[in-house]
C-alpha cells in the first residue's frame, strides 16, 4: 500500500439534466443513437437543459479528506453520484482505485425487504469481499451500529437513525480505500455522530475520504482539502479550508430578515451592530474578544407596555448558541413617543471564528404570549486567525506550577 497514492482522479467532469421529463426522454433516445457514432453534443446545452456539474477536476490521495461544500442545488450530490458510479458523466473522466464505500442517500444501497444482516452481506459482496471476509466482520458491524435486537428485521421497518447507523457501520468497518459521506450523518444522535468522527479519524491513515456537509465546524475539523461549489462549478478549491468556509458564509449576506410571527403591535425598524469598523459583502465584522454592541429600533403600532426581549445568537447551521439576559427590569427600556430605541452590550465576545446571526423575540411582560418573533435580524462575522470546531474560543492563561 503506497502512501500518497492517488486514489481518486477526476478530470473535467460535467453532467447536465433537463428540466422537463418528456423532453429529457426524447433527448435520451437521441443520445442513444448519437453515442453509437460518438456524441458530438456532450458539452453543448440543448433547450431546457442545465449543468448540474460543470468541468470539475481534482485528485485525492490516500490519507486525505476532501470537503465538498456549497448551498443546496450547488451540484454536490450529483458529483457524489458520479463518483460512486450511480450516474455517468456527460463529459470528463473519473478514475478510482480500490474499494469504494458510500453513504450518499439515506438507505441507498439497502434492499428494503431484506433484513439488516442480509443487507450487510449484500453490501460486502458489492464491495468485493468474500463471504468468509464478511463473516469475520459482521459482528463488529452489528456492534458498531448498536441495532443488534433489530438486525434480523427488514430494513424497510428501520427508522432513519437506524439506517444511518447500519450504513455507516458497513461503510466504515469494511475499511474501503475510498469513503464517500454525504449529509446523512446529520440524522444520527450526537453520541453516534461523535463515534463516527472518531472512526473517520482512524480510517484516514489508509483511506481517502470525500465528505459533504453544511456543518462548517465539522468540515474544518475533518478536511485538509476543500471544494466550494456554486451552480455546478468549483468556485474555490485547495487546502485553505478556512478561506473556503469564509466564502461559503459570506454568500449568506443577502438573506432577507424573516418575520416568523407578529400580532401587529410591534414593528422592527432597524437592527445593527454598532461597534463594527469593517464589513465584507454587507456582513459587519468584529475581532474575537471585542465587545458586541447591538442596536434595536422598534415602532409601537398599538399602545402596549415595554415587552420582554429575548435575543439569541445562532450559528449558520441555525443551532442556538447563547441567549442574552432579558430585560426583566421594566425600567431598563423606556417608550419615547411610540418608539423603542435601545442597545444591548456584551463585553469581550469569545465566539469562535465564523458567521453568526441574531434572532429576537418580544413577549408580553409576565406572560409567555409572543408579540413578535424574527430570525436573522443581524448577521455578523467573528474574525480570528484560527478555525475551531467548538463554538466558543475561551481566553485562558497557562500557569507554571
Automatic annotation (TrEMBL):
PROSITE patterns: ABC_TRANSPORTER_1 (PS00211), ABC_TRANSPORTER_2 (PS50893). GO terms for cellular component: membrane. InterPro entries: AAA+_ATPase, ABC_transporter-like_ATP-bd, ABC_transporter-like_CS, ABC_transpr_TagH-like, Bact_Polysacc_Export_ATP-bd, P-loop_NTPase, Wzt_C. Residues 27-256 form the ABC transporter domain. It comes from the Bacteria. GO terms for molecular function: ABC-type transporter activity; ATP binding; ATP hydrolysis activity. Keywords: ATP-binding, Nucleotide-binding, Transport. It holds the Pfam family ABC_tran. The keyword ATP-binding applies. Belongs to the ABC transporter superfamily. This is ABC transporter ATP-binding protein. It comes from Confluentibacter flavum.
Amino acid at each position: 500500500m503506497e502512501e500518497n497514492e492517488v486514489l481518486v482522479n477526476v478530470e473535467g467532469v460535467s453532467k447536465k439534466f433537463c428540466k422537463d421529463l418528456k423532453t429529457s426522454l426524447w433527448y435520451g433516445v437521441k443520445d442513444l443513437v448519437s453515442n453509437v457514432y460518438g456524441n458530438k453534443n456532450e458539452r453543448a446545452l440543448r433547450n431546457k437543459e442545465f449543468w448540474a456539474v460543470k468541468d470539475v477536476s481534482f485528485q485525492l490521495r490516500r490519507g486525505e479528506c476532501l470537503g465538498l461544500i456549497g448551498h443546496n442545488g450547488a451540484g454536490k450530490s450529483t458529483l457524489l453520484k458520479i463518483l460512486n458510479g450511480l450516474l455517468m458523466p456527460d463529459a470528463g473522466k473519473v478514475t478510482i482505485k480500490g474499494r469504494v464505500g458510500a453513504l450518499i442517500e439515506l438507505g441507498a444501497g439497502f434492499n428494503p425487504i431484506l433484513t439488516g444482516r442480509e443487507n450487510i452481506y449484500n453490501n460486502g459482496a458489492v464491495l468485493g469481499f468474500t463471504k468468509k471476509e464478511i463473516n469475520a466482520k459482521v459482528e463488529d458491524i452489528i456492534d458498531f451500529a448498536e441495532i443488534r435486537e433489530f438486525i434480523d428485521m427488514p430494513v424497510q421497518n428501520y427508522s432513519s437513525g437506524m439506517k444511518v447507523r447500519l450504513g455507516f457501520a458497513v461503510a466504515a468497518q469494511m475499511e474501503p480505500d475510498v469513503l464517500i459521506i454525504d449529509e446523512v450523518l446529520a440524522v444520527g444522535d450526537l453520541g453516534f455522530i461523535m463515534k463516527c468522527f472518531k472512526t473517520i479519524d482512524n480510517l484516514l491513515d489508509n483511506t481517502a475520504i470525500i465528505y459533504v456537509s453544511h456543518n462548517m465546524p465539522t468540515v474544518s475539523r475533518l478536511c485538509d482539502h476543500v471544494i466550494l461549489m456554486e451552480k455546478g462549478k468549483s468556485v474555490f478549491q485547495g487546502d485553505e479550508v478556512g478561506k473556503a468556509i469564509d466564502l461559503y458564509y459570506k454568500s449568506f449576506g443577502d438573506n432577507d430578515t424573516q418575520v416568523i410571527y407578529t400580532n401587529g403591535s410591534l414593528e422592527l425598524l432597524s437592527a445593527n451592530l454598532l461597534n463594527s469598523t469593517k464589513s465584507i459583502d454587507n456582513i459587519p465584522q468584529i475581532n474575537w474578544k471585542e465587545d458586541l454592541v447591538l442596536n434595536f429600533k422598534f415602532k409601537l403600532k398599538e399602545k402596549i407596555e415595554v415587552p420582554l426581549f429575548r435575543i439569541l445568537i445562532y450559528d449558520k447551521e441555525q443551532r442556538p448558541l447563547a441567549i442574552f439576559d432579558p430585560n426583566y427590569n421594566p425600567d431598563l427600556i423606556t417608550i419615547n413617543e411610540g418608539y423603542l430605541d435601545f442597545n444591548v452590550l456584551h463585553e469581550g465576545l469569545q465566539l469562535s471564528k465564523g458567521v453568526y446571526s441574531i434572532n429576537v423575540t418580544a413577549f408580553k411582560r409576565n406572560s409567555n404570549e409572543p408579540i413578535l418573533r424574527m430570525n436573522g435580524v443581524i448577521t455578523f462575522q467573528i474574525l480570528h486567525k484560527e478555525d475551531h470546531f467548538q463554538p466558543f474560543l475561551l481566553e485562558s492563561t497557562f500557569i507554571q506550577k
